[in-house]
Amino acid sequence: MKQAYIYDVIRSERTYQDVKYPNCRKMSLAAELLLLKKSLGDCIYEFSSDIVSEEETPEACLHELRNMAAILVRAMENHGAIKRM
After folding, report:
1. What are the 10-residue block averages of pLDDT along the chain, 85 residues in total?
2. Which residue among 28, 32, 73, 85 is least packed, with the fewest CB closer than 10 Å?
3. What is the CA radius of gyration of the chain?
4. What separation, in Å, do the N-terminal and C-terminal C-alpha atoms of the chain show?
5. In sequence order, which ranges of the chain are alpha helices (DSSP H)?
């Protein structure tokens, strides 16, 4: 998949999260990391319980990956980011 499409998917998930959970803008980093941990656990569970083939990723995992990417973006928006040099 093209990087531009992936960034668009993350951007749309960020918008969804902002609308559905408006108080997430005020979360501590610890709270953001706990949400990330839960989403990662859900993804691992879905992957291990719904393996279709080694080449195919279960759809539920793709939803969690999108969610985790948006959580990480929000965490950087709320708490800062450092550019790699």
Report:
1. 95 94 85 94 82 72 94 94 94
2. 85
3. 14
4. 26
5. 3-20, 29-49, 59-79
